[in-house]
């Protein structure tokens, strides 16, 4: 696999060739990765996959016209041909008044911050096989488990580099490891599935195979024999496995392109109270070993922790340079490579209410552990999704439920949202358990 210095050199060379071919401005990104994965089922290895790949994305500007091409061939002659092609394409493209590189004065200078994203541990397929086997064995060992969809373990290493014609060149490397299991409880029409997984930058950070497997098995068993619930309005408690999805709808709504097009239900809410006063949401790209940490954005701008929401008030849009120009604002360091915006490690701050207290206050409601389908209107904020979980009665989870739909409007849901105190940093986007009163439930 390419080293960081090799990837940066290829990006620099591609930029120079596109400039020589007539481009007014250029940027190039190079990515390389190698991964190994092992899948097992019923105690036998089902698959072992190993892949390696390298790619170059070259973007050229001729005035306000822009085009992009990609290639996996980096020889000098190949770069020459690629440069000539992308410049010819840009000259034929329609004008885009907002096209262009990021402002030169905003580029990251100096060495990128050290975020500890790369693990030097060598992981052979035998080690991954053993982890997957142990994970499935633990899941199948849970009483009530009758079958398995399998378990898998994987390891991935990657390099990312970016160079621009106005002075940026940088790169970094990452690793990631994952382990998962999925099993089935019951037989016939009673069958229910359960799964569990964990991902980390360092192999030593992974939760134990036994713990992941047991959790998958227990989740399958506890879903057996779901009951039907009547339709009505009631409190919904979102488990941490699914509560972060509410943040995902929010970050999509504050993306600069959606705001500029007027297709976001939050398009007029900058500086306004969007959540309850106790809610704060932060995007932190510098978290050491974070699953989405990065030293710079997709345009070469520096990144730093930023509060997207503070005390309930929307603080910023997510802006790449194109959206910033369209909105007469400055880019925020959220550019994604290839266009658009992307967040890093986003989390909703923990609230003050313990989980047990939050659940104990619900006389009758639904504890949601699974969401199904998309069901969100990005323009209006209307929300309707299939769900499964547990019936709450008198403050306790009593029976599993499935085949229900929960509905509301995200504007109202965000204002009514109450976070518990049980925040855990486990995913790329994290939120504590969340309670929202007054949602509509359509029973199965």
UniProtKB/TrEMBL annotation:
Single GO cellular component term: cytosol
Location of the Metalloprotease TldD/E N-terminal domain: 26-90
Gene3D superfamilies in the record: PmbA/TldD superfamily (3.30.2290.10)
Domain spans labelled Metalloprotease TldD/E central: 121-224
Single GO BP term: proteolysis
GO MF annotations, alphabetized: metallopeptidase activity
Domain Metalloprotease TldD/E C-terminal span(s) in chain numbering: 231-443
Family to which this protein belongs: Belongs to the peptidase U62 family.
Protein name, per record: Modulator protein
Organism listed in the record: Sphingomonas spermidinifaciens
Taxon lineage: Bacteria, Pseudomonadati, Pseudomonadota, Alphaproteobacteria, Sphingomonadales
